[in-house]
Each structure stands twice: as C-alpha cells, then as structure tokens.
User: Fold this.
Amino acid sequence: MSKYSVAEAKNRLPELIDRALKGEDVVITRHGHPVAELNPISAPARAITADDLDWLAARRVGARRPKENAGALMSRMRDEWNR
Assistant:
C-alpha cells in the first residue's frame, strides 16, 4: 500500500490512477490521516439475454408441497417432545 498526501496526489493523479488500475492500494492522506483510497471500478455485469432465461427455465426445480401443514407439524413435534 502506498500513501500520498493530498498535494502530492494532485500533482501525480494520472500515475496514481494507473497504479490503482494495476491493483496497487493507493491511499491519499491529509495531515497524515487516510482520507481516500483509489480503487479500480469493476466491470459492469453483462445484460441478461433470452438464452440465459432459457437456460434458467430448463433447470428450474418445481415447487415442492410440504408433506404436512405447519399446524400438524407443530402438533406432531409437541407430542413427540412430551413422550
């Protein structure tokens, strides 16, 4: 991680941006305290296509019905606990 004062960062901004794009941690300080960090912005996600939706539809898992409703399940659990 490299640290630069605000004044130094102002004079070397293009170089610091290049360093950040290469993966280096660049921190800008004011009076010795970190106040900003330069990081590259990640690439935007690609748009969802019709092929993506078709792929999802082909792998969809159908809805599963519970074997018993919630009330019956709680009653059964309560009865098992009391045994």
Remarks:
- Residues 1-72 form a domain with the YefM-like fold fold (CATH 3.40.1620.10).
- The two ends are 63 Å apart (CA to CA).
- The first helix runs from residue 6 to 11.
